[in-house]
Queue: 2 jobs
Job 1
Amino acid sequence: MGPDKIENVVKKMSFKAGPEMNQQIWADVSSKQERAQERRITMNTRIARFAAVAAIITIAVLIGIYLFGGSIGRTGVAWADVVREMQQIRTATWTEIGEPSPPKIEGTIRIAGSHIRQCAYKAPGHERQDTTQVLIDPRTEQPTEFKLIHIIDRNVCKALILNPQEKTASVHSFDPGFPQNPLYDVFLNPPENIPSDAQSLGTKQIDNRQAIGFRLQKKDDGTYPWSGDITDIWVDAKTRLLVMLEIKAADGSCLFRLTDFVFNEDLDDSLFSLEPPPGYTQTAPPQIRSATTREEGK
Amino acid sequence: MIEIEDELLKRKFKSGSKDALHCIYEKYRDYLLTLVMALVNNDNLAEDILHDVFVTFTQSSGKFRLCGSLKGYLSACAVNRCRDELRARKHRPLSLDVDAPIQADFDPPDRRIISDEQSRQIADAMVQLPYEQREVIALHLNAAMKLRHIARLQNVSVSTVKGRYRYGLQKLRSVLNGRLENGTR
């Protein structure tokens, strides 16, 4: 047998999965994907609720300031004022802009610019995030816009995911114990780790409002649990409510910016409905893992 | 065209599309199975490895950032999994030695992996090669991976890979020729 021939013989080697094996592996793989998606909902929720987290940060900072002397940047704004205002929140809307940092290329697809997420919150426990991301294939320079909508109802532990481009909808359930809305956590379980090294950023005009800024930096001992290394928060000097929040990397580049906060405006219940809109095809929700999975069968 | 298709599949997969995952699975299942069989020549182990490769791949969708080809990525995953399994089995007492040739005189009717007789014979012969040589041959001929990529995967020089390929083919030829001669006697 010559060298060419043996190479051809090896190349022709072929094994195929039998139907039973194929079915079993695919069942397991698809169930794993559903679980991964459930986890992703959680992650998305976490990120998109930075504004809610901001409330915690605000209070943490202000507690720290209280320890320093009771006011932010000598403006007379006390932390108790902010807590009181945050407790009154019925609804909130804001815009989250996420920078593609650090990698801007995934495969041969380039992430073009920031992702933009329109977020809404309605007490108690209703959340909505409309995410838009532009991707560009560098070879064709053709932009593609990705849109995804997450609607979460923490009262029934369900989430509806809508894909407006494919017109598909899927309803997912999540663990009732995870995670509580940080807005509630703030008031029911005040943060234990108070950043004592918060720096004043002074005041500046944001959207024609006088805002007071503060900077938190992640500590080496991990007592600063928020994402990013630096968090700059800005509160309205008059209303004591959030105006802007920026989550930054250690080098100062912005990872997330939360702006355009509007509090206590009436929001229609339909925005938070778990019913798929007309024209959407409902895809199968995640299945409960059966007892005869491969791993358990081993 | 294939590359573009894979790029779309990757993108859709990353955004959580079940259809994309199914397409990837259907597209690369048998290809990976052939690669893994060439490396381990053990039906049960190959099935486990294939399963693990796809499950791991699926679970990585959230943080999936693949710059190279999907085929190459999955091949590397499969190869790494084969190495792990073989290494684990070496340290496991009383285990099946996958380095030893496993030959079947006939195909049991309930075999979960379907193949022709010639493929079985080649896999039987391949498993007699040292693992590194087997890996080079399988990756180059079955996965169409370039030798320099294999060198990177094996963390050796390209000339070493060429040597492994050449010696591996020589030995494979002698094993197969020996069988042919034995079979004709």
Job 2
Amino acid sequence: MVYLFKSVTKLGEAARQHIDNLGLATLFLLRIVSSLFTGLVSFKQVIKQIYFIGNRSLVVIIVAALFTGMVVALQFYDTLVRFGSVDLLGSAVALSLIKELGPVMTALMLIARVGSATCSEIGIMRNEQQFDALDCMAINSYRYVMLPRLLAALICVPILTGVFDLVGIGGGYIVGIYIQGGSPGAYIQGVMDTISFKDVLVGQIKSLVFGLLIMWIPLFYGFYLHLNQKNMGAEGVSNGTTQAVVMSAIIMLFSDYIISSLAL
Amino acid sequence: MAKPIITVENLFAQYGDTLVLKDVNLTVNKGEILVIMGGSGSGKSTLLNHMLGLKTPTSGTIMIDDVDVFTAKNRELRNLRKKMGVAFQGGALLSSLTVANNVKLPLEQNTSLDKQTIDIMVRMKLELMNMAGTGHLMPTELSGGMLKRAGLARAVVMDPKLLFFDEPSAGLDPTTAVELDELILTLRDAMNMTIVVVTHELESVFKIADRVVVLFAGEVVANGSVDEIKNSPDERVQNMINRKPNTHRDDGEVYFNRLLDKGGN
Amino acid sequence: MNIEIEKYNNYQVVKLYGEVDLSNSRKIKLEIIKLIKSKNNIIVDFTDLQYIDSSGMASLVEAFNESKENNTEFHIVDANGSPLQVLQLTRLNTVFNLADSIETVSING
């Protein structure tokens, strides 16, 4: 009985902690955005961050996209062939990628590669008093450290999602045509006919929102590492990074659902 | 007597249930070296953080150069900070920048000097710290002592009026520690800097301090010149000076119970 | 501005007053370099200079370099008090031609 009460208390405590975090995280984001107006953000820094994101993820995204496209095609083929609608393969693959799998898979890959690295980097900076040093030098950390990373994410993620979509459709083509022996013409025609501007727009809006989330959340967990007493030192950075990655993934999937249902 | 450049009044700081700073009062006069001394857990780092405006207290005021650190507007605080240099314990260099770019940072962000001028100033400061030719290195390539010196170069690159040191000798070999003490004295004399040093190294304290404030468990237990501190009637201060431990030893029975964890810890 | 320029024999004497720091070092540097580029020999007079910071020192280093490139002379005279300590601390007293007074420079040619 006592155990039950303790569990409920823990749950309540966790929920309260998360709501606190939500408030602080929102304030954090507002500070980053408003730092845009306090002076010129360093163009050089943004480019450096774009390079960092792209460098870490392009290959992974291409490989993941290829296999995702191939698997999706394989699955659809299996179903479509029973209805004699194999010609629809192109449309099916393209639609699933552009509207759902492209944005979500890209985001997941980036959470793993970029989100974790960012949270560690920022967490270590916090531990080593680098943010204290910036404050004491009258340098705005939000403008100097956070904003370039956020802007770079907003620029890169839609582009990388596009790359994922294209490579994925290509992967589907490989399966549909070379492995299953379908008609190339039908595949490509299917892609062109079915995909509307609205589909692409929804996909890109998702990728923009995901881009914001997968940078904002790790930055937040790294920056506020010191608020959780258990989070000091190397183990703390590791803990914080794990939390950031999990939270990013969950919130990303949640917003995926919200946007999908709004778009229908 | 001129007005002090730093005034700490009735400072109280509480974390959770613990009172970390209890009614701390002190002043720092322009051009002097004040050493804040205390053992671990005495609250001296917390006090420094408050002076730098990095933490806000439960109550109390800190005035630096006529600016109220806790209530000043952003712009006022920023202008004050441009006159302050801070040498953090581990250097606190930005890990993504070279040593030179780290030292350059305050100049690039806060002044409109020419690039050539800035480069010369950076090299001058690195030379001063015996770090000539290390500008291209990344922080990860530096030893602990070099990190501290690079951090100090950055702290003084704008020739601040006020310089703060957080445990300058920690982790340094004795020779470097002595050199650092000499440097602190020179900075006061040649550059008219007011310097606040937080430390627990006794030799340094007696050599460089104009005045000393001793903290024990968050309270100021002594405040005065080096001689006044040496003659302080406070037992805790005397223990600190004579390197005797300040913990009091319980009697045998209590100790026995503790060893066997009979108190139900 | 904390600067006064006067001719003395074949030198331009740049007299610095009060304090040279972040607020005026760049302007002073540009003035001196302008003189050097017009092939003037320079004497920087530190007599009434109370304080000079690193930006001021760096500016003088740049000016000194400019004078070398233009083959003109560059002297600093009557460094005293805090500025002299800074010259010693930065070891720039080994770099610049320090002299006691304007006359000394003039006599030694």
